[in-house]
Amino acid sequence: MLRIPCPHCGTRDEVEFRYKGEASVRRPAADAEVAQFAAYVYERSNPKGWHLEWWFHSAGCRQMLQLWRHTVSHEIHSVGTAQERPSAPISERSA
Amino acid sequence: MSDTSPAPRRFRSSGRYSALRLLREALTGHRGWTPAWRKAEPRKQYQVVIVGGGGHGLATAYYLANHFGITDVAVLEKGPIGLGNVGRNTTIIRSTYYTPENIRFYDFSLKLWEGLEKELNFNAMVSQRGVVYTYHTDGQRDVMTGRANDMRLAGADCIELDRAALKTLIPPISLDNHRFPIMGAFMQPRGGTVRHDAVAWGYARGASEAGVDIIEHCEVTGLRQAGGRVTGVETTRGFIGAGTVCLAVAGHSSHLAAMAGIRLPIESHALQAFVSESIKPFLDVVLMFGAGHFYISQSDKGGMVFGGSTDAHNTYAQRGTQWIAQEVASEGVALLPELANLRILRQWGGIMDMTMDGTPIIGRLPLDGLVMNGGWCYGGFKAIPAGGYTTAHLIARGESHPLTTHMDVDRFAEGRTFDEPGIGPFPWMH
To answer: Which of A86, B180, B204, B222 could form a disulfide with A78 if both were Cys (CB 3.0 to 4.6 A apart)?
Structure first.
């Protein structure tokens, strides 16, 4: 069971949340090519390691949150609100 | 084939298995048994390198060598063979699918299961005890009726059971649980279970006897390419050249494809399974709960083997979360109340390669010479014979088998997705 530190409600059990997928995908501009839209809808990095992902606190503040979570250890590095991206683990910071 | 490669070591075949052989060995102190398959050392170059020594990888190697005439094949496995998802499932086989294309594919698999033991000369304990799935509402009955008709049109078998027939078939079932009373059920009599470890060993034995090198403890760490074409794999045991590289790595498909800079329409999720203590004969079919997501059968040792939904977040950890375990247990007790008296003996997790449309991927990736067999979602085990056969067809003939033309990876970009569960591109909801 994950324990997710919600910035609004404090640390709560995973059962209060709903997973909403990878948070690093970005909707392309309206005039982008079809291939870019297909990649946005379907393709995911699905890393074995650190993953930036959306969680919805459905049984709490009902806000969307962004988490850096490790997909092997399940360690949660940082949590941010929908508007504010949390700080990345050192290995994920681009130079 | 490279001239510098040493000749394959001589290997004493395990010989054909038969009742007569068993009797002879019993009378001579069982001294004649030899290992079922040869543990090979890697050579420098192969025509085909298959990454992943699980069910699909070994089956692909078997069919390549025995049905498509390509024996210059290596299967690379990072650990021992058969310890991934082929040994981490609930062993169910069936072809009760929704889209006609997938019904035909999975029924081809069921037909191969039916002849598997004769084909492999290996006892995989294929048991066609029947798969029963309940319905609880009028709408569900209508959808299932449509699916049953689609199955019959595709040449598969499916019958409807009313409540009385269901109670006769499965005495411990709770028809009148207060929340989700059961209205009836459908059954595929040809469905059932298979001993999963024997599937890996049987295909390994058949492939090895035909000359395939099965190389354990050989992890792929990179894909080498030149001129837009894959030329081989970097491994923990050195570089191995290949004309064709086939990825059959289930939950690690994205991880391997990323080595070639390819992003796949896949997320990896954990699916748990459970085994209870052994009890006397209690359930002689595979039973699936239509009001939730729960499936159960009884193993030959007497343990109840069951599972439910995925853990619903990306993970590569082969373990499960507690709240899903509770959910699975509560669904089981709603269906078969006497399960509440049982203790769980074992629980494990496997990493499912969940595609965005719930249909698997067998096809070429956008790098010449690189093909994949993956994206199996929940359906990987039952698909092993057909997945192996059609992947071998793709590698040997250079084009998709007619049953898998809809499983190419280009379907996502071209708007031809096969939305098997009918919920759209949300793999954690399947």
So the answer is: A86
Task: State the residue range of the domain holding A48.
Answer: 3-92
Interface test with A, best of B253, B256, B316 (most A CBs within 10 A): B316
A22 interfacial to chain B (CB closer than 8 Å) = yes
Instruction: Return the amino acid letter for B46.
Output: Y
Split into its structural domains, chain A has a count of 1
Q: What is the DSSP letter of B177?
A: -
Would you call B264 and A74 a contact, using CB atoms and an 8 Å cutoff?
A: no
> Cα–Cα distance between A67 and A86 in angstroms, integer?
7
Amino acid at B396: A
Confirm whether the ipTM is greater than 0.90: yes
Q: Which chain B residues have a beta carbon less than 8 Å from that of A45?
A: 254, 258, 263
Residues B279, B253, single domain; the answer is: no
**In which domain, by residue range, is B313 found?**
127-189+267-355
Among the candidates B293, B322, B355, a domain finishes at B355
Asked if residue B279 is part of any domain, the answer here is: yes
Are the CB atoms for B8 and B37 separated by under 8 Å?
no
Q: Which two tokens stand for residue B386?
A: 């057909």
A46: closest CA of chain B, how far (Å): 5
Residues B287 and B425 in one domain: no
Q: What share of chain A is helix, strand, coil (3-state, %, to 5)?
A: 15, 35, 50
In order along its 430 residues, chain B shows pLDDT tens digits of 344 444 444 555 678 899 999 999 999 999 989 999 999 999 999 999 999 999 999 999 999 999 999 999 999 999 999 999 999 999 999 999 988 999 999 999 999 999 999 999 999 999 999 999 999 999 999 999 999 999 999 999 999 999 999 999 999 999 998 889 999 999 999 999 999 999 999 999 999 999 999 999 999 999 999 999 999 999 999 999 999 999 999 999 999 999 999 999 999 999 999 999 999 999 999 999 999 899 999 999 999 999 999 988 999 998 888 999 999 999 999 999 999 999 999 999 999 999 999 999 999 999 999 999 999 998 899 999 999 999 999 999 999 999 999 999 999 999 888 887 766 667 766 5
One domain for residues B341 and B383: no
Same domain, B337 and B378: no
